[in-house]
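Review this:
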Amino acid sequence: MWRQQFARKAIAYGAATTVAGYAGYSYYKQQAGPYARTVYADPLETPTPPGMRPHAFWTPPKRVEMLNDLKGLERDGSAKAADEREYDLLVIGGGATGAGCTLDAATRGLKVAMVERDDFASGTSSKSTKLVHGGVRYLQKAIMGLDYEQWKMVREALHERKTFLHIAPYLSNELPILLPVYTWWQLPYFWIGCKMYDLLAGKQGITGSYALGRSKTLENFPMLRAENLVGSLVYFDGQHNDARMNAALAVTAAAHGAVVANHVEVTSLIKEKDESGVEKVRGAMLRDNETGEEWAVRAKGVINATGPFSDAILKMDEPGMPDIVAPSSGVHLVLPSYFSPKNMGMLDPATTDGRVVFFLPWEGGVVAGTTDTMCSVEADPRPSEKEIEWILSEIRRFLSPDVKIRRGDVLSAWSGIRPLVRDPKAANTKDLVRNHMIHESEAGLITIAGGKWTTYREMSKETVDRAVESFGLKPLRECQTETVRLIGSHAWSDTMFIKLVQNFGVDPDVAKHLSHNYGDRAWAVCALADRTNGSAQHASLEQRIHPRYPFVEAEVRYAVQYEYAMSVVDVIARRLRLAFLDAQAAREALPRVIDIMAKELKWDDARKQREGRKGLEYLTTMGLPDSILDKSPAAANAREGFVNMQTTRSLDFVDPASYYRRGQFSAEEIGAILAAFSEFDAHGDGHIEARDIQPLFESIKVPVPDNGFEPFLDAAGIRHSDPGNAVEFEQVFDVLGEIKEATNAKGRKPTSDLNLNQIPTHRSGGSV
């Protein structure tokens, strides 16, 4: 009780002091920012040879050169002196934290190698909410619960948010997020919270929050439900392209002298006794998953940064150790761009289970999520239909009734596993750690787990600091990553795309895409296209891998030659992001992407077939049904069983190309529906009676759904209980669309109930 009373007083005091504090904050923010006197630690200032700053055309070492280094050879394959074969650090895991640790160690002047079993960002790091945020929800809980640890966590994240936006400006940006308000008392409550969020950021702050009235709210976000709307608060957070950020971290680490290798797996740890006779981890046995070759690599220290898979590496060290990871599944959906303004997101602060739902524009789509449920650890988890339907139901609550979101509007759906962790050295090992945890075993294996994307850099810094102390390493300098700009950032500007249009003649949308995904490396993508095509200049810049998206063929070649892409999934999921934006479009693009990669990597027909199968299997984890495995990617566009509308009036209700898509009709089909409607429109006034609906459907051979027509009529607002009730054509058309969607998705049923409250909200983190 006293905590609640004290919390109310704290809020009241906050209301009185926020205005004065915000004035001081505004002045403070105008002073020299944190980077005003920064000396950037670019490769010129590290062991990288002089003149090797990663300019727009710099080429990273080839994968074979990285593997030679890991095998104790010179990068050209020649012998290396025995005393040069040991690394200072071996980092296991190529996600955000692993790549962050590798970059941190390399820029300190340490000799470091990183290996990843699959691909960079193949797990949790590519399946986040795409936010770079302090966490407004955490701040609320810190104040209401008088929780200083939550307060510190928000403050640290806000500092890292600013750093994030600075070191990778082309991959990250500020995003205004709207908080709709439907009761008057919430308006000052949210205003105080947003201003405290701004104030806590201090000089690391970005654009300040502001309030909007009802009309301005609807003007900025016209899709919002207008009923009872009072106004809104708009605050700012960061957003980024997570998998491309991860790849940039890995390549930047390589530019600073690190060895980075994807598709290389740790099969066991190497232990040796130290001077006191205690066994210590001194390296690992590795396997190249491309060739099956195995070898040993030695290091003074090993860092386990494998996220949800941390326990697997820990058990290589201590087989009897209890699990420290409490995996939690977070599902996200991608919807078409027209459901949200292009440059503004939304946060629903009060879902039916007390969590929050984000609704954010991202890379030409709209990301919605997330859920938070206990799960098992697996490489490519699938989103359940129950979770997808829950997110859709929450979205429908805050959007206008005129904006109808159906299951068929979902372009992609994925599940990411958050590695919530327990501290094995804590008094109560069942409690979850709120932020991140660094654990050092008796054998010296350092494990970093937990946290979130926003704080990856600070987590990496703390981990490398611990490694330097524990392993007696001698870095050349202190941590540099607060000022190290990632590859592609040095010569990038927000208007760079104009030069790409002028110099290469690419479409403006393609130029913007290249600029904001590659930074100044977009010049290398374009130049690669020229070199590749010879006389057919710009051809691979003009050839999109899918007509609806700005991804071009030159990017596939760039991914292989410059970003270590080794499989078709590496490209469609983590270099081009098409699988995340539109799973069906990615399916349709598979054959062309495989052909380009086959030419680059010298694949034979058998390898191409395997890649096609693996690509389809991956897309079944992104929202497509298992039935696509029975059809080749080349058949993805086929409209089997199409019947001529003008002669038979039979609608195409089984269209294999429209799996999980909104029910759509061709021009012929629409004509057939109009003609049938006109025959039943006795008065010619654009209406039929409810009693005419069933005969109309029978005339155009509409299949009867398993649960009958009634639920679809109810959803369209048709009062079918009154036979004489007037029904408009638009209502009939909506019903037919819903039925077609349900028919195409037949068999797509929730298989189990979903408990969305298994993890306490304040422990779960809300979003990855």
User: Anything to note?
Assistant: The chain is about 40% helix and 15% strand.
